[in-house]
Amino acid sequence: DTGVSQDPRHKITKRGQNVTFRCDPISEHNRLYWYRQTLGQGPEFLTYFQNEAQLEKSRLLSDRFSAERPKGSFSTLEIQRTEQGDSAMYLCASSSGGSYNEQFFGPGTRLTVL
Amino acid sequence: AQSVSQHNHHVILSEAASLELGCNYSYGGTVNLFWYVQYPGQHLQLLLKYFSGDPLVKGIKGFEAEFIKSKFSFNLRKPSVQWSDTAEYFCAVRSQAGTALIFGKGTTLSVSS
Fold it and tell me: What is the three-class DSSP state of B44?
């Protein structure tokens, strides 16, 4: 399968713990996006990378959240000191450069904070 | 700020019925518009998109959408739904200069056979 992959698919953690998610984009895509989706809502944008540069961050991305894309390939999203309100599906998407390109989504990581 | 409204939260249809899902957006400038679909247990995938040109766009699986600029709308249609169209449908907008997609809350479509 050459689509976007995410790991893990499910994560259960206790409040206050740190968690890290990984996203592997489609190999030739230089743009990578993170979104968060809570129950009954559409995906909400968190952050965007072009190659290794993080170019845009949403106000939803509090100080407890950090994302990296060190070599312009895979990306990680870390949440420190998790809170119950962080429980959500975390989606990764990638696209090639240019204004007319579709974002391809991964299967998501479902986070449950107890 | 941009926003997207999807008027129907849950739509229930019988097979062969016609479908129209409403989507309105708020943004004064030039936008790109999208409909994504999420079948049960699957990833979000693109149904169709509008960037410019003919306001009636055709997508996969017999879906189409019409961009009406004066109404800030991009409604999704299908003349005859099938049981396999049961899914959640999301409308999304992106400003022409932007990168992030702004999604509506989604519409769940249930089709009975």
Answer: strand
Q: Could you say which DSSP state residue A89 is in?
A: E
Residue type at position A17: Q
| Closest CA in chain B for residue A109 | B43
Burial bucket for residue B45 (CB in 10 Å: 0-12, 13-18, 19+): middle
Q: How many Cα atoms are found within 13 Å in the side-chain-facing hemisphere of B91?
A: 30
Residue in chain B nearest A55 by alpha carbon: B99
Nearest to A85 by CA among A35, A43, A23, A36: A36
Substitution target from A35, A94, A103, A109 for chain B, most B beta carbons within 10 A: A103
Q: What is the CA radius of gyration of chain A?
A: 13
List pLDDT tens digits, range B65-83.
999 999 999 999 999 999 9
Q: In this structure, are strands A44-50 and A53-57 parallel, antiparallel, or unpaired?
A: antiparallel
Quote the CA–CA distance of A52 and B104 in Å, as a whole number: 29
Q: Is A76 an interface residue toward B (CB < 8 Å)?
A: no
Say whether residue B52 is in contact with chain A using an 8 A CB cutoff.
no
pLDDT, tens digit, 9 for 90 and up, residues A5-58: 999 999 999 999 999 999 999 998 999 999 999 998 999 999 999 999 999 888
Terminal Cα distance for chain A, rounded:
33
Using a CB-CB distance cutoff of 8 angstroms, which residues of chain A are in contact with residue B39? none
